[in-house]
Amino acid sequence: MNIVYQRLLALIVALMTLVLSGCASLSPAKTYSMHTYLLTANPIPSQTVSSSKAVLLVTPTFASAGFDTNALLYQKEAYQLESFSKNAWVSPPADMITPAISANLVRLGYFKAIINSNSSFKADYILNTRLLSLYQDFTTTPSLLLFSINVNLIASQTNTVLASHTFSYSIKTTADTPYGGVLAANKALSEFLQDLATWIFSQIQLNAMNSQ
After folding, report:
1. Which domain, by its residues, includes 176?
2. CA-CA distance, 155 to 164, in Å (whole number)?
3. What is the CATH number of the domain that holds 125?
4. Do residues 65 and 75 make contact, with C-beta atoms less than 8 angstroms apart?
5. 122 part of a folded domain
6. Which whole-number Å values give the CA distances from 146 to 44, 82, 131, 200, in the listed order?
7. Could you give the count of Cα atoms lying within 13 Å of 77 in the half-sphere of its Cβ?
8. pTM of the model
9. Which residues touch 103 (CB under 8 Å, ≥6 apart)?
10. Are 153 and 129 in contact, with CB atoms under 8 Å apart?
């Protein structure tokens, strides 16, 4: 009798273990929330510039290899880029840089119009931009946000490059965290937009003087 009871008890325990393990496998997997961030410019002080009748075409910003992603990138070792697992941009930074450039130039009011590649209007000048790098560097303390972008200004009538320049920024972060890098990236973008506008105005004025 004891043997039968022991075998029955062992069978019940085995069945319970099987049921519990099955329930555990059916339990929903743990999910981790993803924090997403915008790359936008803070309000930039207006510049006093004379208005122009020129039309500027702002083409989509092209991203260099490795930076055509919405991943939030960082570096801890030289030449090695990694991405945060729970933090990302809402879209690839290059896609957010283009509208920021256009919006700032429209606000400054120097050009008769700012158009994009889908416009049917004829442009006098074309602005091409290429994102070279955007990542948080943890090899220094505090960490740095490194942002580099190359721009070309083209005269559309002759299809010649009037000027080319690479803007590079190294912004100290307020915290060695992903969000600290995001804040620094937005600051870098604001500085770039201000520098870019000044550069474009000066190049067009220089070209006008040389054409006389």
Report:
1. 37-211
2. 12
3. 3.40.50.10610
4. no
5. yes
6. 20, 14, 11, 23
7. 2
8. 0.82
9. 41
10. no
Q: How many domains does the chain have?
A: 1
Cis peptide bond upstream of 142, omega within 30: yes
Tell me whether strands 62-63 and 125-137 are parallel, antiparallel or unpaired: parallel
Q: What is the pLDDT of residues 91-145, one digit of tens each?
A: 999 999 999 999 999 999 999 999 998 888 899 999 999 999 999 999 999 999 9
Other Cβ atoms closer than 10 A to 197: 20
Question: Does residue 29 lie within any of the structural domains?
Answer: no
Q: Is residue 28 part of a domain?
A: no
- Within a domain: residue 21? no
Residue pLDDT, tens place only, 154-201: 999 899 999 999 999 999 999 999 999 999 999 999 999 999 999 999
Q: Are 144 and 136 in contact (CB under 8 A)?
A: yes
Query: CA 180 → CA 35, 142, 168, distances in Å?
Result: 13, 10, 19
Q: Which residue has the tokens 């510039």?
A: 49
